[in-house]
Amino acid sequence: MAQFQVNAGFMPLFDSAVLVTAREIGFAEREGIDLRLSRETSWANIRDRIAIGHFDVAHMLGPMPLACNLGLTPLASDTIVPFSLGLGGNCVTVSNAVWDGMAAHGALADLDPTRSGAALRRLIRARAAASESPLRFAVTHPHSGHNYELRYWLAGCGIDPSNEVEIVIVPPPFMADALAAGRIDGYCVGEPWNSVSVVAGKGHIATVKAAIWRASPEKVLGVRKSWARDHPDALSALLRALHHAARWCQDSQNHAELTDLMSRPAFLGQPAEIEMRALTGRLDVGGGVLRKVDDFFLPFDKAANFPWKSHSLWFYTQMVRWGDVRHSPANTSIALDCYRPDLYRAALKPLGVALPGANAKVEGALTTATPVGSAGASLILGPDGFFDSRIFDPDMLDGYIATQATGLQADA
Amino acid sequence: MSPAPLKILVIDENRIRSAIIEAGLREAGYDQVTIVHDVGGIARRIAEIEPDVIVIDLENPNRDMLENMFQLSRAVKRPIAMFVDRSDTASIEAAVDAGVSAYIIDGLRKERVKPILQMAISRFNAFSRMARELEEARGELEGRKLIERAKGILMKSRGMSEEDAYALLRKTAMNQNRKLADVAQSLVTAADLLGPGGL
CB–CB of B92 and A75 under 8 A? Predict the structure, then answer.
C-alpha cells in the first residue's frame, strides 16, 4: 500500500522519460508513492490543472514556473522547481528548401551554430532584398527554452528574431506536419519531433541546443508551492524516486527498454529507433548524413537534475531581453526563489550521492569536463559553453542584462 | 442605456458540441456568437470579430498557440485574461472539470460574463452526458443483439424453447456473477470457434 499519492501531468516529449520511468519501472512505488500520470495536450492545460489542484507536480518547460510566478500567464499558482528533468534534447530543424538556401550560403551539415547561423543570415538578407516574405519559425511555447535558445542563436548570428523572422507557436506533435505542409519554414523543438521530419524526408537539422549552449536547462519538475509546503515527505520521496529513475534513464544498458516503453501509445507513440537518437546523440541530420552530438540529451549526468538558480536567472534575463518582463529587484528575487536546490539537497542527502555545494554557477565558464567540490562522492560538470563564448555570471546580472543585445541592437 | 451586446467567439473542433453551445447562448439572448472549428487563420478571424469573450475546449492542442496570440493582442490594448475573477475558484474548477476554458477582455464587469461561462460549463457537461448516454445505449443495443444470437444457438443446438434458452443464460450469469451480455458473448465466441457443426 502506497504511503503517498502524487498526481502528475506530462506532455508527449522524450524528456518526460524520467517521470514515466519513475512510475513504469517502479522507482516511485519503491519510495512508497502511487504516482499517477496524466498525458496532456497543451502546456496551458498543465498550468491550469496544477493551479486548481488536479496535479501536484508536472513536467514543465524550464521558464514556465518562472512565468507563472511573475504573473505572465492567465491562470497561475506559485510554482517551484526542486528538480530538473534533464539537459539539452532540442534541435533547430528547417525545411529542405530553407536548408538548400542555407547550403548555398555556406552552411555545412556539421550542426555548427556559428556557420549555419551566418548562412541563415545571408539567406534572410537575400530574401529580403528580393522582397520575399520573412521566414516563419515555430517554437512550442513563448516561455520555453526553445523560444529563448532560438532567439539567442539568431540574435548571436546577427538576425533580429523580432523583425527579420516570424516566430509562431505550434504544439510539438504538429511541428513535422506544419513543416511538410509549408505552414512554417523551420522550428525548434525537443526530440523525437526533429527526427520525425528528417525520417519523412521533409526537413534538415541545422543545429542543436547542445551546440548553442551545451548542458543547458530544458524541462523541469514544476511543483505547486502550497502542495510542497503541505507534503514535504511526499515531495522528498518523489525526488528520490526521480533521482533513481534519471540514473536508470542515463544508463545505456537500459536504453532499449526505455525506448520501447516510451514508444507505447500512452507515452510518445513514436518508433523506438527514432527515439533512440536522443539517447545516443547520433542524429541523421538529413539525407542520411549522420552526426554524433556529445551531451545531446542528459537525463542524469553532469548534475542534470540539480535545479541551478543560475538556470532560472538566465531564463529571466531572456524574458527581460525580449520584453516579457521588466527587470527589477522584485522580479529578480521571484526568479531566484523559483528554483529550489535546497529541497533537492534535503531530499537526496540521505542517499549519500554527489551534490553540488553551490546553488548557482557561472554558466559558460567550463571548457572541459571538470570535477567539482561537492558533498559526498565526486561530481563532473561541463563543458557548458555558449556558442558565442559569452559567459553568464549570475552575480553580474545587471551587467549581463545591460549588455545583451536586443533584436534591434543585434541588427545595427 | 444598456451596454453594447457582448461578442462571443467559440473555438471548438467538435461541431455537435459547438452547435449546442451556440444554441444555448442564443436562447439566453446573446446573438453575436461566432463558431470556429478550425484554428487555421484564427488570428485574422479574431481581428475581424474583436470578441469580448472567447470560449475554447481544453482538449484543443492549439491552446498554447491561441494563448500566445491573446497575449500579443496586449500590444493593441485588448488584454485578455482567463475567466472573470481569479478568486472565483469554484467556477474555475467547474470549468476545467467540464473541459472548457474562457478568455475575457480585461475590464468587463464579471456579472456580465459569468452567465456566459456558466452556460458554457453546463452545455459542455450536457454534451459529455449525452455522449456517455449514447455510448451506453450503443453498448446496450450490442448486448441485446448478442443475447438474441446466444438464445438462437441454444435453441438450435439443444432444442430449447426461446424462454428456456433465456432462463438458462440468466441463471448462468447469476451463478457466475457475470453480466448476461458477457455470458452471451462467451457462448457466441465459442460457437464461432467451433464452427457451424460444432454445437
Answer: yes
* Side chain identity, residue A160: D
Residue range(s) defining the domain that contains residue A391: 356-404
Asked if CATH classification 1.10.10.10 holds for the domain at B136-194, the reply, yes or no, is: yes
CB distance A156 to A117 below 8 Å = yes
Cell of B187: 457462448
Chain B contact set for A49 (CB, 8 A): 96
* Contact assessment for residue A385 and residue A364, using Cβ atoms and an 8 Å cutoff: yes
* B71 in contact with A, Cβ within 8 Å: yes
Q: Which of B64, B71, B82 sits opposite A171 (nearest CB)?
A: B64
d(CA A35, CA A23): 6
By the CB < 8 Å criterion, does A49 face chain B?
A: yes
ipTM of the complex: 0.87
Q: Which of A207, A208, A205, A177 is nearest to A96 (CA)?
A: A205
| A160 in the same domain as A43 | no
Average pLDDT, chain A: 94
**Band of residue A407 on the pLDDT scale cut at 50, 70, 90:** very low
Q: Is residue A83 located within the same domain as residue A221? A: yes
Instruction: Give pLDDT tens digits for A236-294.
Output: 999 999 999 999 999 999 999 999 999 999 999 999 999 999 999 999 999 899 999 99
Note whether A212 and A384 are within 8 A (CB). no
Q: What are the pLDDT digits (tens) for A178-215?
A: 999 999 999 999 999 999 999 999 999 999 999 999 99
Q: How far apart are CA B131 and CA B135, in angstroms?
A: 6
Same domain, A258 and A312: yes
Question: Is the domain of A224 the same as that of A364?
Answer: no
Taking only the tens place, the pLDDT of each residue in B62-92 is: 999 988 887 766 444 455 666 656 667 788 8
Q: What is the pTM of this model?
A: 0.87
CATH 3.40.190 fits B8-132, yes or no: yes
DSSP bridge partners of A297: A88
Mean pLDDT of A93-110: 98
CB contact under 8 A, B58 and A171: no
Q: Examine the domain organization and report whether A78 and A226 are in the same domain.
A: yes
Domain count of the fold of chain A: 3
- B87 CA to chain A: closest CA distance, Å? 11
The answer to whether residues A378 and A333 belong to one domain is no
Strand order in the sheet with A79-84: A33-39, A4-10, A57-61, A219-224, A79-84
Q: Identify which of A40-54, A376-390, B2-16 has the greatest average pLDDT.
A: A40-54
Asked whether residue A299 is assigned to any structural domain, the reply reads no
**Is the minimum CB–CB distance between A44 and chain B shorter than 8 Å?**
yes
Residue where the block lists cell 543585445: A405
- Structure confidence at residue B78 (pLDDT): 54
3-state class of A279 per DSSP? helix
A131 and A234 part of one domain: no
Q: Rounded to a whole number, what is the distance in Å from the CA of A63 to chain B's nearest CA?
A: 14
CA A227 → CA A40, A47, A80, A240, A337, distances in Å?
20, 14, 10, 17, 16
Quick check: is A132 in a domain?
yes
